[in-house]
Amino acid sequence: MADRSTEAWYPTAAYLYVLHLDGPALAWEYLRRHPDYRRDWLRRRRQQEATHAWGLRLLEDPALDARDAHPAWFPNHDGVLQLYPDADPPPEAHIFEFWRIPGHKHLIHDGKRLMLTARWSGCCVRFALAPGLVDGMAYLYAVRACATPFTSYRTITAELDKLAVAEGTVPAAATCSRPTPAALLELHTLQALDATLAGASLRETAVGLFGAEAVAAGWYTDGGLRSRMRRLIRRGQMLMRGGYRRLAQLE
Question: Taking the model in full, what pTM does it have?
């Protein structure tokens, strides 16, 4: 068995950031690993039909992980806060104040409007800013008409709650509870997927994820570690080859 310990996928510590990603950010992690997407990026195929085929408005650099990438999904998921100018504001109307939005902010233009992402410890909120909205202007939140408006409203309310909790002051760090099983599953899936894309065998991948002792003890047990590794790799390939759309709420 080859020594894989020096390869990029091997140290689990390199994947710890995955534990704090939400659905759209996780979707990017799977999409950016797709070989065909990476080829499209190298060829800079920016035609609208090519980008929309991936569920994006613009191609994003696959070398950037979810901490630095800001993919503009198409269409927007319900959690994006859409802000529009209020044409008839009451005297006590709230005004848009860009610099009071908490966290590290990133702006891109998707061809139609500005997309703003604000990240702070443990949270990420996304905005779509309509043309004409400027700092100091009264604004409205928009909810897209649909068959289940209350579901959309609850999603937006959850995003607004993140902003309310921050109250303009964002801590430099936050104490978090132990990772959930769902978060650990994504970490292991991405690490196993990277190992497979790098040409590692099933057993080599298991050693990287769980250690040589665990593999020696449970590799030949029916329904044990070997089966677990197969499920992780199948899951990773499924999410990379289209399943990411569910995470990004594109379907």
Answer: 0.85
Taking only the tens place, the pLDDT of each residue in 39-90 is 999 887 556 667 889 999 889 999 999 999 989 898 888 889 999 999 999 9
Contact (Cβ atoms closer than 8 angstroms) between residue 230 and residue 10: no
Gap between the Cα atoms of 200 and 194, Å rounded: 9
C-alpha distances (whole Å) from 78 to each of 73, 128, 159 are 11, 11, 10
Tens digit of each residue's pLDDT (9 = 90 or more) over 4-48:
889 999 999 999 999 999 999 999 999 999 999 999 998 875 566
198: Cβ–Cβ under 8 A, 6 or more apart, which residues?
A: 4, 7, 8, 9
